Amino acid sequence: MSKKPRKVRVEFRKNREVRARRNKITSIEHATGETDDLRTDERISGKGDISRYRTIKSSGREGGTLRDVDEAGCVLARILATAGIHCLAQTDEGRRYECTVRQVVRTLARESRNAVVTGDRVLLRPINDEQAVVERVEPRHGLLSRASGGKEQILVANVDQVLIVVSAADPPLKPHLIDRFLISAEKGQVRPLICINKIDLVDPADLQPLVGLYAQLGYETHLCSAATQRGVVRLRRALCDRQTVLSGQSGVGKSSLINRLEPDLDLDTRSVSGWTRKGKHTTRRAIAYPLSFGGTVIDTPGIRQMSLWDVARGEIEGYFIEFRPFVPLCAFPDCTHTHEEICGVKSAVAAELISPPRYESYLKLLTDDSD
Ligand code: GDP
Ligand code: ZN
Questions:
Q1: How far apart are the C-alpha atoms of 284 and 80, rounded to whole Å?
Q2: How far apart are CA 333 and CA 327, in angstroms?
Q3: What pTM did the predictor assign?
Q4: Residue 23 CB coordination number (10 Å)
Q5: Which residue of 207, 232, 256, 287 sits with most ligand 1 atoms within 8 Å of its CB, as the best mutation to test the pocket?
Q6: Atom 9 in ligand 1: residue holding the nearest Cα
Q7: What are phi and psi of 175, to 5 degrees?
Q8: pLDDT per residue over 126-166, tens digit each?
Q9: Does 226 sit in the ligand 1 pocket, CB within 6 Å?
Q10: Are strands 191-197 and 287-290 parallel, antiparallel or unpaired?
Q11: Nearest CA to ligand 1 atom 20
């Protein structure tokens, strides 16, 4: 992290040359969709219109871009939700601001849609009691990303754990979806937990083989029912003081569980998600709700597909930890464990040393990357 500042040359945008301030001198004009610079530490060369560039010092690195900012008058906050070019942030003291993002912060991000994401720690410059500008995004850790349009889309940053929510029924339980979410969690260096909701709809004994399998693999598993509240107390303990993102297919009961975790959250849920509906270009990707008993829970309501980002086919077997002892028994070092005749993994599946559903899951992940 203590790298030398990187110098970035960015074009000075023409639309900034005309500043549009109406009302108060401190208010910002959002009509262009850009944030106006009120104070600048950028140098503009005086060579006329064609060569208006500014040099920015930054220690940019993957997932988070630091730039030198005058921190006086700024406050640290966390992003609760993003919608189009706006975001909602909450300071450490609990004050909320609707924010725009300084254009230079977008320019410095490798992908502008990932410039500010839910969960980001940011440095804000308040404009008034309700509005602020994001001056800087602090370096990130613990990401949940997916592939979208052939590019990385960071859904949430700075989380400690992912609660993978599936339902025992309605929609039916698909173990391969659990495996897909497990990979994305491990890829983002976030601890995965598994939650099987709607157990009121089945005989929980039927779930034992699956729970046993994941427990054996070392994953903490919760059986819950948002309807009867079974398992909710234990789940609350698992989430206490942690930054947790809930991920799973829609309809599995993520929002119902969140409301059970924190009954008083109902109102707050409406206030934060209500905010995300206010904007014109609403993208409800991830919404963070601070928990009264400590920690934050982040819902991902708009996510229908969880395509893996940046996981090569050959890498997939590495995420199936139970395959590892058998891979050296394969005849070919680049064995895909599919059509090859002498294959340690396939032999282990035949001998039920590897669970057949996990192997099927592996095959599914190898051949397609959706659903
Ligand atoms: P989300 O899309 O994952 O946020 O799912 P919702 O929380 O909106 O729930 C989808 C549907 O499942 C709703 O009709 C809920 O009432 C229902 N549901 C949620 N949890 C449970 C549960 O534990 N048991 C049963 N029977 N239904 C549930
Ligand atoms: Zn093999």
A1: 11
A2: 8
A3: 0.80
A4: 7
A5: 256
A6: 253
A7: -60, -30
A8: 999 999 999 999 999 999 998 888 889 899 999 999 999 99
A9: yes
A10: unpaired
A11: 253
